[in-house]
Amino acid sequence: MTRTGFVHQALCYGSDDEFLEGTLEFACDGLAGGDAVLAVVKNHNIALLEQALGSGSGDVEFVDADDWYGYPCRTLGQYHAYCADHGMDRRVRVIGEPVWAGRTDFETREWMRYESLLNVAFAHSAHWILCPYDTRTLSADILRTATRTHPELALGARISAPSGRYADPADFYADCDAALPAAPLPDDCDDIRFARGRSAAVRGALAAYARRSGMPEQRTYDMVAAVHEVVVNAVRFGGGGGVLRLRSDPDYVICEVADDGARNWAMPARFPGHLQPDARAVGGHGMWVVRQLSDLVAEDLGPTGSTVRMYFRRPGAFIRPPAA
Fold first, then answer.
1. pTM higher than 0.85, yes or no?
2. How confident is the model at residue 216 (pLDDT cuts 50, 70, 90)?
3. Across the beta sheet with 307-313, what order do the strands follow?
């Protein structure tokens, strides 16, 4: 299966045989062509592929999907790093099966957004990503969305077709925001006003709140670094000040930064912080770093005021079982 340019396909399967029909030849063709092959799938599917590949399984790198698909932005960063390490002079083929079970509606929407953003993040590469979707367990909404986030549908061994419902990532991004607006913050609150020269006080108050919320030391450090980056941007571009709102719910510690309204505002880049910036670029790194340090991020950026909300999962937060 010789292809040029980036390829991103969804494979909808309803049995073990259908999973193997769509993935086995994909892996074998990659190995035969000298590609790096990475399979990030459920444990059950790792066992299926290893058995089917036989002695060739040692040439495929297997990763349990539960260990890889933690949070969308960091997963995108992991794929960037893997492709940089393994695909400088060759194609990387990925069998990537996101974990949908146990997600909240907000988390599910962000994973849908992630699938669409892959088309932008790797648009100029020659890599090939095949994303299996198990029709036995996934909701109709997730399966429908797969046809909007993948330009092609894999129909079996070496057979594919264009998706007639594929959406431009910019349009899909906007649809995600419109379909699930940010929920109101919990009522119990700690609000901290900030302005130029007050960043040290904000960092101290934030660190104290994180520790009171039971956050581990490393995550407290990550939280302070991410929020500080957004506060500095708010001071610089958002009218010189704003408010940091600190909240907790059963799942997350939530940090929301709202500025006072921009006087020095420029249209942000498309998909702010989702796409890895050029390491040599002078700017454009801030929101990428914020998303790598946070678990989830929601943003509303505009010329009359901007809000960035960062989520950090609480230790021991309940992970929901798959829906029946």
1. yes
2. very high
3. 190-195, 241-248, 252-259, 307-313, 296-300
